[in-house]
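Quick one:
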Amino acid sequence: MTLNCAVIVAENAEQAKTFKASALAKGAEALEFRLDAFSVIPDDFSFFAADVPTIATFRSESDEERKETFDRALAAGADYIDIEGDSGLRDIFPKEHVICSYHNYDTTPPENEIRTIINDLKSSGIPKAAFRVRGPKDLIAINDAAVTLRRQGQPFILIGMGEEGEVTRLRASDLGSLFNYCALTPKLASAPGQLTIDDAVWFGKNPVVTGITGYPLTHTFSPDIHNAAFKAAHIPGKYVKIPALPEELHLIPDVLLKYRITGINVTIPHKETIIPFLRKTDPLAKSAGAVNTILNTQNGFDGFNTDIMGISASLASVNANPKEANVLVIGAGGAARGAVAFLTREGAHVSIANRTRSRAEKLAQEFGARAVGITELQSGYTIIINATPAGMSGFENISPVPDRIFTKECVVMDMIYDPEMTPFLTAAKTAGVRAAVSGKTMLIEQAAAAFTIWTGIRPDRDVMKKTFEERSL
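Output:
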């Protein structure tokens, strides 16, 4: 059984007692006291006495100081002391009171190396190993090691650190970890990716887990708006980041299965290349040849394209009717495919411009559209849509097209939402276009549609919008 263990980071004994009472009131099932956070090690260790398991953790360069402190903690009622695997103290205390720990803040080794580390640690007590997660390969290694460790029937603690390892904490019970270490408050977190005790208790042992994959995911707003939607709907659920490089994409289905992830959004650069891993795609996604939402079903993975709903809602918000309109789509990737599929279906006359013209020509041929070179672009479009990452945070801060194409009669839409005002939109507004729409509406609408696919519930869009605006400040 996995216990939610509140990590107490206090400055003195009185504060430790206060935090202890708060943690227990919140539902903590165990307590870890970080003695190395104290300004001075106190004489009063009475806070270790509790009706739940308590752990004394003290990182110090002085083994003599640590030994004395651990002796006092055990005498005061601590159930466990946490000793690093490379410490000379690991074998001088009774094994039943030792958590022998190992931390790698840089990488996660292969599954067989994780098991080797655990087997070494368990010779001195309950093994605890924490690794920095970077992507799907690391998550799979941790899960596979846990499967073997569970079969051995001995207690262990296995943690994936960092934001990318958050799902290992959400699924700590599945992994079989003895403790799920939680922060008392976000500001008191002692490790990256740590849940708060409030959230851990709210989630329980079987939360709904959804997320996003792509690369990079540094600036995505999706976790914020989905997590706000979960709370507003009173669903114990969490949306996580699972970044994957192109060469790691084939591992994503395994991650979804092994961590029981209900569904996942797909963003740059995987919207097209994810399709071969799916059982089926819905008509919108099939027509676009791009998927941005996946549902994990008992029979396989189903793909959807909720971007199209976002594009439709964005244009409707400024009364831009694509029927018979001359529309320019900039880009030829997965986002552009969704836009072109929607626009051609609605009866627009579509032109496609892309930095690599051959890609624009290929996409145009598929949809009966027209390819045009960036340098050849002139005015005359009713609707102009940017489906490239140009201007996005972390990408080249430029407009992808010459300013001459903007007129007072056209509507301009950027799929980018961070920043909300891109160089593309700035140039369009300066030219006096009829309307300029950021990616905010598209983000909210595609997210709301994905949320419904995963949960069967319509989310509160106002909550999602408010969260977006707060994040944008």
